[in-house]
Task: structure prediction
Amino acid sequence: MNAHRHNREIILLGLAPVTAKVHGMWHKGYPVHQGETEASINFATLYASEHGIIPDQDLLRKEWLNLVDTLLAAGFHLHIVPFPEALNRPDSLYHDAVFIRDGGLIFRGIWIKSRFSVKDRIYEGEFHTKLIEAKLNKTVVTLPTEAFLEGGDISYLETCQGSYYFGGLSRSNKVGHDFVRGIIRPDQYILIESEGYHLDTVFTPVVNADNCLVAVIVTADKLSQDSMKALHNLGVRVIEVSAMDSSGVADQLGDYAVNALIAPGIMVNSSYFSTPGVEELLSELNIQRFVTPLTSFLYAGGSVHCLTNDIY
Result:
């Protein structure tokens, strides 16, 4: 399958503009966020905070523009919406709003709005909702009050074998995922317990050019045994990668290669997998690889999947 033929629609948020008062994205450092559990802390932002890392704005912008070019080359149709002005203020910098994936799930005519367990990120969801409601004319669906759900904890696929819903139980809870399940009614519904602060930091599915689920890539030592068993029961190849292809270990930041955007026969991420044999397996599965470095965004704990959101 030619990469330019699938034309899957993706929405991205533009970068926050540099102003006289706000000198670019994360210009005062990366905020450290944690959800309801200790395991849900964003290791990358903790690493950046401890090492006093401030992003170079020229590099950040260059990497974002390269991401756009790479997505176009991979055959995606892009909707780029401007960064909300109301979030780009000196008193409103402790967010990760550019990661539009986290704000919710687009499913046909609706936007299922996330409820963030991280209080500093609640306002992001409000602005993402306004943008998508206006830009894409979607009907907003709000979660029940006891539900937590963040888009980075959702991986939803419609494949030749039917539909799959993978839900992470880190910053989201079963109530939130069950609510979504009742709306989209997937054929396969798998909830995954992990130490990753979002599912997409430890997991990605792999779909071949015939739009069939052929593998899942997982950071196995960050998933529970029951979750690994559920994935093995799918009957597809389970490819295990090291923590360095995720958030990293100890005082080493990983490359977040597992945080990938996929389409039939396509995988886009910010790094080749460092785990031996993984790239060879993807080649055997005839997956076209597109790599676009995103160093400035990795320190915020996000990569290609976080920066994009699918329009199903």
Remarks:
- The longest strand covers residues 162-168.
- Residues 57-73 form the longest helix (17 residues).
